[in-house]
Amino acid sequence: MSDKKPSGVHGAPRGRRDVELGKRGELRAHQFLQSATEVFLEKGYRNARLADIVARAGGSLATLYRVFGDKEGLVHAIMDESIRSFGEGLDLLRDPALPPEQALYAATERMVTEILSPARIVCHRIVIADGLDFPALRDWFFDHGIAPVEERLTEYFARGKESGRLILESPRIAADRFYMMVFGGTILRSLNGTVSAADIGLVQAQTREAVSIFLRGVLPRRDLTADEG
After folding, report:
1. Cα–Cα distance for residue pair 187/133, rounded to 1 Å
2. How far apart, in whole angstroms, are the C-alpha atoms of residue 130 and residue 139?
């Protein structure tokens, strides 16, 4: 997380182009994205070639250009899908009936599943490991994939503070600390291959424990006592 706010300066994603595709074309587009994800994981974004992706997916280079434009268009499409999937976890925080100890557990379980997905690992490797070499991709992902998460978490913690459900000074600082505490280690380990989607059960248990530790610092004492009981 960072102090950056969504600026919009990097514009809309250059991913999937607005072209009409039949059923077969949609299947081919999906195969291109799946194969691109695999190739990016194996070779890295810099060394991946469109020819490698087409050879694995089938179809033609002309079709790939028509649907995605180029390699950058492919990775933008991968990022865009991952951002939407990650946001589905945040959607669980919208239910005002759920207390924080239920809402945060449910949301983070969904979010960490996406963090361990091949698509998200590709995104993180590009923006974290190769961010200096590909600043436009890095900044677009931070503007559209990270900053909005921080804003939504900040809004959630602000509502919790206002309602008295959470005791904290700064919702924005709480959002930043929550994200790094709950997801930071998993992101780093997924980058170096220490954990993957095959370890989802263990990672979800670790995530739940991290949420529990965070809640001990922000829940009113009466709620914490009841939760422990």
Report:
1. 20
2. 12
**Residue-number span of the structural domain to which 164 is assigned:** 78-228
CB-based contact 148:2 (threshold 8 Å): no
Of 166, 172, 170, 169, the C-alpha closest to 216 is 166
Domain CATH for 221: 1.10.357.10
Residue 69 belongs to a domain: no
DSSP string, 132-164: TT-HHHHHHHIIIIIHHHHHHHHHHHHHHHHHT
Type of residue found at 65: Y
Q: How many domains does the chain have?
A: 1
Structural tokens at position 153: 């978490």
Convert the pLDDT of each residue in 161-170 to its tens digit. 999 999 999 9
pLDDT tens-digit series, residues 182-210: 999 999 999 999 999 999 999 999 999 99
The answer, yes or no, to whether residue 159 has pLDDT greater than 50, is: yes
Cα separation, 4 vs 127, whole angstroms: 15
Confidence of residue 26 (pLDDT cuts 50, 70, 90): confident
209 lies in a domain? yes
Distance CA 164, CA 75 (A): 42
Distance between CA 128 and CA 124 in Å, rounded? Answer: 6
Contacts of 59 (CB under 8 A, 6+ apart): 28, 31, 32
Q: How far apart are CA 103 and CA 117, in angstroms?
A: 22
pLDDT for 11 beyond 50: no
